[in-house]
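JOB MANIFEST
job_type = single_chain_structure
chain_count = 1
residues = 833
[input]
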Amino acid sequence: MFFVWNILSEASYVFRAPLVTWGIIQSITMLRSYFRIALRHLRKGGSFSAINIFGLAIGLAVCLLITLFVTDEFSYDRYNDKADRIYRIVSDLHVNGNGINGIAVPSPMGPALVMDYPSIEKAVRVRYQDRGEMWVRKGPEKVMESNAVFADSTLFDVFSLPMIAGNPHKALVEPYSMVISERIARKYFSGTDVLGKTLVTDDTTTYTITGVIRDMPAPSHFHFDFIRSMSEKKFNGGGRWINLFSATYLLAKPGVTTGDIDRMLAATVTKYIGPQLQNEMHSSLTDMAKNGDYWGFYSIPLTRIHLYSNVTGEFEPNGNIQLVYVFMIIAVFLLLIACSNFMNLSTARSADRSREIGVRKVLGSSRRDLIVQFLGESILTSCVALLLAILIAALLLPYFNQLSGKHIVLNVLGKKWIAFALLLSPLVVGLLAGSYPALYLSAFQPIQVLKGRLSTGFKSSRLRNSLVVFQFSAAIALIIGTLVIYSQLNYIRSRDLGFNRDQVLTIHNTNNLGTGANAFKEEVEKLPGISGGTMTSDLPNKAYYISRGYFNHVTAKASETVLLGSWQIEANYIPLLGMKVIRGRNFSPVMPTDSSGVLINETAARLLGYTDPINKSLYTGPNPVTAFHILGVVKDFNAGTMHKKIEPIVFHLADDNRAISFRINTRNIPGLIAQIKELYQSMGGQAFNYSFMDDDFNKLYQSDERTGKIFISFALLAVFIACLGLFGLATYAAEQRTKEIGIRKVLGATVRDITGLLSKDFLKLVFLAILIACPIAWWAMHQWLEDFAYRTVISWWDFVLAGAMVLAITILTVGWRAVKAGMVNPVESLRAE
């Protein structure tokens, strides 16, 4: 028996191999047949195939670009080996109606956390002094450099900043030591072999170069070129817990969370800050809490800073997680619109293939075979669209980089998951776009088809109509969003800010003239075309300002202290910038006692509780407490961006020679700037740098401008893709109703009548899309405007204009094809009859 079983087993193995081989051959033959049929139908489809492929290609190209953008946004700071264990401390203070939320924290905080909590391995302080600007002497000339910071020697223990030369553990230990980037080393020394060489900064301090690091990767929330040792600086706090000093980063042990660190910070505030508040400001943390005030700090993971943090003092402008989500939603919408085109055209053209399907079913094809065939055609279309999409993405990438402010490279093979997603996308898109047509077409009954009982022509379809409505709803919502964004930007430009930023020229870094800065200002004021000048770097187009604590009586408690912006200005500052003193008087250059006087704005007067602040005392301190008398009240004006409310400000009469602004009244601006530059250089100034106040103001809204441009670009793409599908449907409708149109023309119908006949169904769908899109767009834009303290009103005209634009585009798209169909000679239409 065992012998017989072995013989049968061997026999089955011998015959099984050829059967498997024959099955594989049959499968390959079948797939080849499907492929040939698919190619034949693509060629036969003509303009419909082109619309499908081009529409899908645009959707896939936008998805690819947005995927690259989103990947770049989420990759920030992940180059650090310990990125998941690095946190930054953020200050969050609120005192008597005003507060500070920024990266600066007390100097002793980092070292105290390391000392008190073993779960904190390292801490590093980074101070971004004077906006990171620094003068560097290069031979006989001075060069203004940016991205200069002071940092602790633990910087390289926390962050992964590979060194080309030097010892990372010792590079910043000694006073007056400096680490520079590879770019700076090549710029100043033509190479990286620079250890032991020196650089002179700000004409006063010589630093020895102790290390060279590789240039920091682009996806980083900071980029430092000059890192100076923190050890020699005297402003490192000296145990002061109330002063905010520098950014502080922590390296925690594995397993430590933000919640753990926040609890440590709360305990640290109680242990160290509480006693100083009690001694110097006569208030406890409990007293502050009773008044709704707080003096707190929280942590944010390093990898979340770029997208989730936008506090005062950021090293560089950060991204916006909401914008990333909007991009992702837009990408999905555009791809769905393109897929909707495919479904619409495939189902609309069902009559063309009905007889083919009937014959195939009679000859033995199963529904499964037909589904596989139709899905194969869809996937093949997607493959062709993908190749075209990569080409379109490559062509659009420079424009997209310009819009988004990125430097993205189209390297699809650089990231394995993107390459895998691209290879998978034709399958996913093919199945998504072709699933319904495949199920719909394969369900035709052969008897009804061959007897001609299947309804033909462009008939009503709930799914098809729903897809058209979805396409145009998305397009209309994007157009409304674009109109609201530009309305807000126009509101910002046209709003009365409380000062005049037009025709104001600012010369920066004039502090390198030293004591000659005032003489330079006086010489420039003598030039024709100059109305006047004022010397200060505290200008209303800055992103943020220094705040100090002020109070209205000597024994004030912390809860009675108000955090106010502290500006240093000259007497002619207020009139030069077109501001108004609405109570009291301005500073006077002929009154020496004004050096102990201050001006305050209306918001500061309200926070201080003054009904009549003129000649009242104002104090700051606490060590030492300094008294000032209030000379006047300045009418409120918008400083910084309109994303935040008007801040309370105290103006001090003091010299600040870091910048000088001039009001100009000449048309020969290039000639005037050339004269000013010549004067600047003749007085020993180097690296002449200037800007116009209105340009600096506009730079504050670059992110909003980019958002608007991106929205309008995507809105146009959405409308274009939707119109591609609409054009295809209108064309097919006209073809299917050729004989009907011919009969109507014989009976007296005009071209106008034919156009109305073919257009009315589409216009109904567009009207429905408008009704759906308007409330959705209103809600989305209302949420976006909430980010502005001062904002425009969403006008009903935005909705009317968006709807009118889409209706006009629809009429042009459908009407053009309808007119063409209506002008066909009815003899040609009816000849087949």
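[summary]
The CA atoms of residues 671 and 697 lie 24 Å apart.
Residues 1-17, 453-460 have pLDDT under 50 and may be disordered.
exit_status = 0
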